[in-house]
Amino acid sequence: MITPQEKLQTLQQASELTQSMLDLAKQQKWEDLQAIEKKRQFLLQTVFPVADDSSEIEGFTTELQTLIDINNQLIAHCQQGKDSLQLQMRDAKFTQKAVTAYQSN
């Protein structure tokens, strides 16, 4: 069984991984996110559920809020990347249509 202190350390590791994921998203290194996400998911699964013991919950509050804040920033960057990719794909379709029309003349 994992102790509350070990759970807190694991949660801190998950926060660090989330920050690494945010850094990668800012650099648009999307392919590197998946491996880190799997590690982060495993860590979070070992932390939760948290006992109803108030001392355990109090220790988690700050770290969990940090993780949530970083995760929200990560989501925003991923959404920006998705929007950018959709624009690129749309532009590529228009270019392909123009090439096809030009070649058919």
The CATH topology is what? Methane Monooxygenase Hydroxylase, Chain G, domain 1
What is the correct CATH architecture? Answer: Up-down Bundle
Helix content: over 70%
Q: How large a portion of the residues is in β-strands, by DSSP E? A: under 5%
Which homologous superfamily in CATH is the superfamily? Flagellar protein flit
**Main CATH class:** Mainly Alpha
Class derived from helix and strand content: mainly alpha
Task: Give the H and E element order.
Answer: HHH
User: How many structural domains can be distinguished in the coordinates?
Assistant: 1
Protein name: Flagellar protein FliT
Keywords: Bacterial flagellum biogenesis, Cell projection, Chaperone, Cilium, Cytoplasm, Flagellum
Pfam families: FliT
Main location: cytoplasm
How does this model look, in words?
By secondary structure, the chain is mostly helical. It has one domain (4-104): Flagellar protein flit (Methane Monooxygenase Hydroxylase, Chain G, domain 1). It contains 3 helices and no strands. It has helices at residues 4-26, 33-47, 54-104. This is Flagellar protein FliT. Its main location: cytoplasm.
Keywords:
105 residues, mainly alpha, Methane Monooxygenase Hydroxylase, Chain G, domain 1, rod-shaped, bacterial flagellum biogenesis, cell projection, cytoplasm, Flagellar protein FliT
Brief summary:
This protein has 105 residues and is mostly helical. It has helices at 4-26, 33-47, 54-104.
Task: Map the helices and strands.
Elements: H1 4-26, H2 33-47, H3 54-104
Helix pairs in contact: 1-2, 1-3
